[in-house]
Amino acid sequence: MQTRSERIRLALEAAFAPARVEVRDDSGQHAGHAGARPEGETHFSVLAVSPAFAGLSRLARSRAAHAALEAEFGGGLHALSLRLLTPEEAGQG
Prior knowledge:
The protein is α+β, with helices and mostly antiparallel strands. It has helices at 4-16, 58-68, 70-74, and strands at 20-25, 43-49, 79-85.
């Protein structure tokens, strides 16, 4: 069975074909906070670098990522910190 981290990575790869994607489970830092579950997998940080973000505002990038992860939000994902960059912005272009 895949972890939520793996599912997030796979969904972002399918949606944006990123050159780089990193997903970190921050749930342990949020124990006792709203939306936190004892089993974890509720709070994540993501870095994705993709040419697909070119020409999109930060808000549009965030909306696109949230749309790609809609199923995860419906299944218990509570919080997501996003850093969505083009290769040029990440110094890779």
